[in-house]
Each structure stands twice: as C-alpha cells, then as structure tokens.
TrEMBL record:
<dbReference type="InterPro" id="IPR010606">
    <property type="entry name" value="Mib_Herc2"/>
</dbReference>
<dbReference type="InterPro" id="IPR037252">
    <property type="entry name" value="Mib_Herc2_sf"/>
</dbReference>
<keyword id="KW-0479">Metal-binding</keyword>
<protein>
    <submittedName>
        <fullName>Uncharacterized protein</fullName>
    </submittedName>
</protein>
<dbReference type="GO" id="GO:0004842">
    <property type="term" value="F:ubiquitin-protein transferase activity"/>
</dbReference>
<dbReference type="Pfam" id="PF00569">
    <property type="entry name" value="ZZ"/>
</dbReference>
<keyword id="KW-0963">Cytoplasm</keyword>
<keyword id="KW-0862">Zinc</keyword>
<dbReference type="GO" id="GO:0005737">
    <property type="term" value="C:cytoplasm"/>
</dbReference>
<keyword id="KW-0833">Ubl conjugation pathway</keyword>
<dbReference type="InterPro" id="IPR000433">
    <property type="entry name" value="Znf_ZZ"/>
</dbReference>
<feature type="domain" description="MIB/HERC2">
    <location>
        <begin position="1"/>
        <end position="61"/>
    </location>
</feature>
<dbReference type="GO" id="GO:0006897">
    <property type="term" value="P:endocytosis"/>
</dbReference>
<keyword id="KW-0677">Repeat</keyword>
<dbReference type="InterPro" id="IPR043145">
    <property type="entry name" value="Znf_ZZ_sf"/>
</dbReference>
<keyword id="KW-0863">Zinc-finger</keyword>
<dbReference type="GO" id="GO:0008270">
    <property type="term" value="F:zinc ion binding"/>
</dbReference>
Length: 133
C-alpha cells in the first residue's frame, strides 16, 4: 500500500489511468489477485496483480522501504528509497527508481530489482531495459 504505479505489460484498460505515462497510488489490496489504485488523474479502479500484470511499480519509497547502505551511482542518493536496481553486468553499480526509469545506464544490461534490503537471492528478479522486461 502506498506504492506508485504505472501501466504494466498486460494493460488493457484504455485511458482509465489518464493515458500512457500517468501515475497512480496503490490504495488497498482487494484480494490476493487485485489492488485498488487511485490515479493522479482522478479516477480509482481495481487492477489485476497476480496471473496478469496490469501494473508496474514505479516507486515503492512511499511505503517506507530504504536501502541504508546503498548509493545510487547516478544521482548519489543515499540511502536508496523504494526499489534498488542493481546492474547484473557491472561491478557494484546501483540505481534508484528515478534514475532506472530515466534510462540512466546501459539499456542492454540486465538488472536485479531488489524490493527490500532483506531480499534473498531468489527474491531478486532480472529485468532487461532494452526489451521492456
């Protein structure tokens, strides 16, 4: 609850969010498969978050998550709030969500999406920027 979201890969709701690039906030979990999002545009609706992914987390820093010992290698933010993006190709290279989503590093590199500082290795997912994964 509190995470900032944008359209995900399975989005099929036209301009319900105000259009491409608009941002909303997760208000509540309606079930294990569905969340309620309030869009900055002014509307609120339920979206899938299990078998289909209508949403993509843009920023989880409003939830209070912070990576105390991490520094964004682009903007120098420390600690990194919300999701920490760790380059899988470069040695010890981290980005905050703002720099990651602004394509501030090589788009062909794979990234680990680290949702919390206590994430186990298997909790870290690979993302490929060049292909939108």
């Amino acid at each position: 609850i509190g995470a900032r979201v944008v359209r995900g890969l399975d989005w099929k709701w036209n301009k319900q969010d105000g259009g491409e690039g608009h941002v909303g906030t997760v208000q509540s979990f309606e079930s294990t498969d569905e969340v309620l999002v309030v869009w900055d545009y002014g509307t609120a609706a339920n979206y899938r978050c299990s078998l289909a992914y209508d949403l993509r987390i843009l920023d989880s820093s409003p939830t209070g998550i912070k990576h105390e010992t991490s520094v964004c290698d682009v903007c120098q933010q420390q600690p990194v709030y919300g999701i920490r993006w760790k380059c899988a190709e470069c040695t010890n290279y981290d980005l905050c969500s703002a720099c990651y989503h602004a394509d501030k590093h090589n788009l062909r590199h794979r990234f680990y999406r680290i949702a919390s500082p206590t994430a186990k290795k298997y909790d870290k997912l690979f993302f490929y920027r060049a292909y939108g994964w």
